[in-house]
Amino acid sequence: RFIACPKLARTVQRCLQGGASPGPQPVLLECAPGPGVLTRTLLNAGVRVVALESNSVFLPNLQSLENSLDGQLKVIYGDFFRLDPLVTGTVKPPAVCSDKLFETMGVAAVPWRADVPVKIFGILPQKKERNTLWRLLFALYECSSIYRYGRVELNIFISEKEYKV
């Protein structure tokens, strides 16, 4: 569910930064960073990262890294793949609402013609993989959830099985 190989982390970092235009770079939201191999690679490349981690085992290490940096990393306890649950009332972590998430990240909504305000990277969990993909597609069609903030660049690894379907 996370990248553990430094060589793969460097490849992903280059792909995420490829074609970057001059000027301020968008925030990168890393979903389920795990031990933080990709996170460190991105930080070393000068990327501003928001790590959204739902596994409490990895949180202390990521928070320690956050404390050693000067605002380049923000760690949030939450699960991107449980974003905007269809419940009324208070949302209990690790579920998270996109409006609260983007507010915490410091990302404001921009018109769709503007540059990408945020890039998202994650590895889709295989449990309910297709349902999650459909939820992301419907949110895009409705311009809701993360797409309320403009054109979001979504970089998600999916299983070979779903890719072939």
Automatic annotation (TrEMBL):
Residues noted as binding S-adenosyl-L-methionine in the record, renumbered to the chain: 3, 53, 79
Entry EC no(s): 2.1.1.-
Enzyme class: transferase
Single GO term (MF): RNA binding
InterPro entries with a match to the protein in the record: KsgA/Erm, SAM-dependent_MTases_sf
Keywords: Methyltransferase, Mitochondrion, RNA-binding, rRNA processing, S-adenosyl-L-methionine, Transcription, Transcription regulation, Transferase, Transit peptide
Entry's localization field: Mitochondrion
Cellular component GO terms held in the UniProt record: mitochondrial matrix
GO terms, biological process: transcription initiation at mitochondrial promoter
Family per record: Belongs to the class I-like SAM-binding methyltransferase superfamily. rRNA adenine N(6)-methyltransferase family.
Protein name, UniProt field: rRNA adenine N(6)-methyltransferase
Source organism of this protein record: Grus americana (Whooping crane)
Encoding gene, per UniProt annotation: Tfb2m
